[in-house]
Design goal:
The protein is α/β, with parallel strands linked by helices. The protein has three domains: 5-122 and 527-621, Rossmann fold; 157-369, no CATH class; 411-487. It is built from 22 helices and 14 strands. The protein has a six-stranded mixed beta sheet with strand order 7-11-12-3-13-14, with helices on both faces. Strands 2-1-4-5-6 form a five-stranded antiparallel beta sheet, covered by helices on one side. Strand 9 (489-498) and strand 10 (501-504) form a beta hairpin. Helix 12 runs antiparallel to helix 13 (428-438). The longest helix has 70 residues, at 327-396. It is elongated, with a radius of gyration of 37 Å. The two termini are 41 Å apart.
Length: 624
């Protein structure tokens, strides 16, 4: 069976300077007295692979490992040899404060990244991390995801992409909503303006002729405004695109210093600069061509606008002559014309409001489709997690059972409500608890968007003041998107059968927690498994009957690297490689490496307490 495996480890500098080890593809055990650098070996492997704990899961654990690595390497570096299941070999080299560099078998950099779901991955667990998994549902979820890492990683990327699209929609909608509110205030004036114009139109016997003249004058005003708006639009557009001209030289040109071109990578740097410069010249030419087209269009419209202005002036003279013939209307003409202009402005606002309403309706429909897509991706991810739980149950039941509850963890939802309501002057923790119990995020977002305080009160068990403040707190589009996209995480449950009764892992004793989680870690998988002291808090009987059996069952199909103080693991697990660590306080090294038989004396001394202690125990137990 083809598997990923770690082939070698070399340390340059620091406590472990000069350490070189070639790992077996099966069981490897690192032994030694305390303080000899055994844990450092495992954490340096983790560091080289860029697999430190995620900050959102355990920032303290990440900082601890970073501190350990920095203290041990002391400005040096770690080199890790790996082989993929495809048989390809790479060397990963990393120094403190720098990113890993992946080289091919010939030592040439490949440009491969170890971020995300990398081309190579190992399952690595520090001391006490096994116990922590039993206590923390987020750690348990990460463990379950590790059994379908590629599929989960792909779906997580989709989730991030769709969420970003939803956030973009919200950003685009915010100014539209502000503008729509401004237009609504302006449009409110229309009934008053219409009433005043109606009053003018109802006076005198010459009503029809005068009304038509005023209607045409109002139409001329609208025509002039439309043409002026077109010229302003073209001018603004020209100004916007002109800002792109010359940006390359102002923003990037000075970054390509002469010493770069003259340096060892000068040919590559010069090639990049040349391509950028050529691209920008083409781009600037396109902008110049576009600006020429805008200028020509502007000249033509301005010319037509002058002709329209002359036509309007002639029509205005005729309008004044008509008004002057009807003395009754002459005094009111200017005032009426003002209200006609006001009505035209409001009609323009109405047209703009209709355009914005259609645009927002389309955006809301797209947003709803994106939110539905987000939900579907999360459903697919849950089905994968559930299938992993079923596989684990097939291998571990009846003693250990794993189950998944979709949307079972509302921590993120509650944290969002609490952080948003802080400073609102109410007991936000209690309000958050009520809402989490009674209203799903999507429903709450729907009610907030509709400003439906009454329904929030009824369905969320809040009073009027609380509902009003909640709507205000989540009033922005950014906050609404957070509410629409916040995830009720899938909740795993891992249980151990104790005395015929299933108990949740978090409620177990320390030893029982390790008894529950370790068999899951030891299941078959294509990735190397590294654990610092897997025997911690476990009794020797369990190690002998369960852990060793699991090791023997999987080591042919999975590389295992353990730091251990328990002799049962290397001896009964028949370790293919034992590495013995020693230290004088300033420098640690591998005193011996080899098979169990080759390292027998060290195993007896370090793990059994010495041959004399071993013989005395044998004598005491009266074992022949």
């Amino acid at each position: 069976m083809k598997i990923d495996r770690i082939t070698s480890l070399n340390i340059v500098g620091g406590l472990l300077d000069g350490l070189q080890v070639k790992f077996s593809r099966k069981l490897n055990c690192i032994i030694g007295a305390r303080g000899t650098g055994k844990t450092s070996v495992l954490e340096l492997v983790r560091y080289a692979l860029n697999q430190l704990p995620k900050r959102e899961l355990s920032n303290s654990a990440r900082k601890r490992i970073e501190s350990l690595v920095e203290g041990n390497l002391q400005g040096g570096r770690v080199e890790l040899g790996v082989e993929t299941r495809d048989g390809l070999r790479y060397t990963i080299t990393r120094a403190v404060g720098e990113d890993p560099i992946v080289c091919d078998a010939a030592g040439n950099p490949t440009g491969l990244s170890l971020d995300g779901h990398a081309f190579f991955h190992a399952d690595i667990f520090s001391q006490n991390e096994v116990e922590n998994i039993a206590d923390n549902s987020r750690f348990q979820l990460a463990l379950i995801d590790s059994f379908a890492r590629q599929d989960i990683s792909d779906l997580d990327k989709e989730i991030v992409a769709v969420t970003a699209q939803i956030q973009t929609h919200a950003t685009q909608m915010e100014p539209l909503l502000t503008k729509r509110a401004e237009l609504a205030e302006h449009i409110k004036q229309m009934p008053l303006v219409e009433e005043r114009l109606k009053a003018y139109a109802n006076q005198g016997d010459e009503k029809a002729e005068i009304d038509r003249a005023h209607a045409l004058k109002a139409l001329r005003d609208r025509e002039a405004k439309a043409v002026d708006a077109s010229i302003v639009f073209l001018s603004d557009l020209d100004m916007e695109i002109s800002q792109f001209t010359g940006r390359f030289k102002s923003e990037l040109g000075n970054k390509f210093a002469k010493e770069m071109v003259d340096g060892p990578n000068g040919e590559l740097i010069n090639g990049i600069y040349t391509k950028l410069n050529g691209c920008m010249k083409s781009f600037n030419a396109a902008i110049a061509s576009g600006r020429d087209a805008l200028a020509t269009c502007t000249e033509q419209i301005q010319s037509a606008a002058e002709s329209l202005k002359i036509a309007h002036q002639g029509q205005d003279i005729a309008f004044r002559e008509l008004v002057e013939k009807h003395k009754l209307h002459q005094a009111q003409s200017a005032e009426r014309a003002g209200f006609e202009r006001k009505r035209n402005e409001i009609m323009t606002s109405q047209d703009e409001a209709i355009t914005i309403d259609l645009q927002m309706k389309r955006m809301l429909r797209q947003r709803a489709e994106l939110i539905e897509r987000l939900s579907e991706i999360r459903d697919r991810r849950f089905e994968i997690r559930k299938s992993v739980a079923d596989r684990l149950n097939s291998a571990l039941a009846p003693n250990i059972t794993v189950s998944m509850q979709q949307h079972g963890n509302s921590d993120a939802y509650q944290e969002l409500i609490e952080s948003t309501l802080k400073g609102s002057g109410m007991r936000y923790g209690m309000v958050a608890q009520k809402l989490v119990r009674k209203l799903p995020p999507a429903r709450l977002a729907e009610l907030v968007r509709a400003s439906d305080a009454s329904s929030i009160m009824d369905q969320g068990d809040l009073n009027g003041d609380q509902a009003t403040k909640l709507i205000a707190a989540f009033g922005s589009q950014a906050k609404l998107v957070e509410l629409e996209t916040v995830e009720l995480q899938d909740e795993p449950s891992i249980k151990l059968k104790v005395g015929g009764q299933e108990k949740d892992s978090a409620s177990l004793s320390t030893g029982q927690k390790c008894t529950t989680i370790l068999p899951i870690l030891l299941l078959e998988g294509g990735n190397p498994l590294l654990i610092d002291q897997p025997e911690d808090n476990l009794d020797n009987r369990f190690i002998f009957e369960t852990v060793v059996d699991n090791i023997l069952a999987v080591k042919a199909d999975r590389q295992l690297i353990f730091v251990t103080h328990n002799p049962n693991i290397p001896v009964l697990g028949d370790a293919e490689l034992v590495m013995v660590m020693e230290s004088d306080g300033d420098h640690a090294q591998a005193t011996a490496t080899g098979s169990v038989d080759e390292c027998k004396d060290f195993i007896i001394t370090l793990l059994e307490g010495g041959e004399e202690a071993f013989c005395k125990r044998k004598e005491r137990y009266k074992i022949d």
